[in-house]
Amino acid sequence: MEKRHSIHSSRYFFLKEKTRTDILFDLIASLGLQQALIILSVSKIFKYFLNLIPRPLLIRLSYWVRPLIAFSLKGSTYTDPIDGKSFRKFLPYGYENPRENVLSPSTLSLERHRLLWLYLKNETDFFTKPLKLLHFAPEQAFYKRFKKLDNLEYTTTDLNSPLADVKADICNLPFDDNTFDVILCNHVLEHIPDHTKAMQELYRIMKPGGWGIFQIPQDLNREKTFEDDSITDKKERARIFGQYDHVRIYGRDYFDKLRSIGFVVEEVDYTKKIPKETVEKYRLAKGEIIPFVSK
């Protein structure tokens, strides 16, 4: 969901209004030359590898480099609510147009991950009630933490992720009807050509009374979802859809699409319940909608 709010178009990693030289002098003035150069180098290196290395390999490598990045950015300006650690800044993230100050150095969480964590913790019984959970494309920020929870019967699934217990096609899942109490399927559907079939499968395997959260990159200024499979150039796909491997950009009609499958859908603007200062401290995306579905 990180694309629901405005995306910076600057080709640099820091504030669009300033030149790279301005940024460097600001950092030197506040942090000293050595630390300023470390931060600039870390950001440049991170974006280089983000765009170069396949995601499954990037996941494996991140376990090695993450502690070094987190150490170099220690501070008190921003806090990751998932692990409680604080930093002077977060990292940039984005394949074509990097957003500034959004990727936590410690958990590698983005705005949507931190918002989801707060919602699950404060508004659901996810961490306390015995639940059978299916987690698609498990995010690093959550994987080990969910796995350690005694109340969860935890299953992960994906076609490619090294964190997946079950390698499966979301359009043809190897699970019985009415199997799972909770399904987390976040930033997956925008990759799936036949998302109707995928949604039908999610509905089929969810227990009656079960619930799920199905986040997607969404443009809330767009009424209708847009897709065009005639666009095959990777750069053009990335420009239009946000990533080359996305097949659509969802509009506000996404929620009605889920309803047409049979889900009861609640459009949760959770940042409205969070103080403005906390939204900034946690680097959340104000106005981001959590699609909470139930059966």
UniProtKB/TrEMBL annotation:
UniProt-listed GO biological process terms: methylation
Gene Ontology molecular functions: S-adenosylmethionine-dependent methyltransferase activity
Keyword Ribosomal protein recorded: no
A Pfam family recorded for this sequence: Methyltransf_11
Residues in coiled coil: none
Keyword terms of this UniProt record: Methyltransferase, Transferase
Gene3D superfamilies tied to this protein: Vaccinia Virus protein VP39 (3.40.50.150)
Record's protein name: Methyltransferase type 11
Residues annotated as domain Methyltransferase type: 165-213
InterPro entries, per the entry: Methyltransf_11, SAM-dependent_MTases_sf
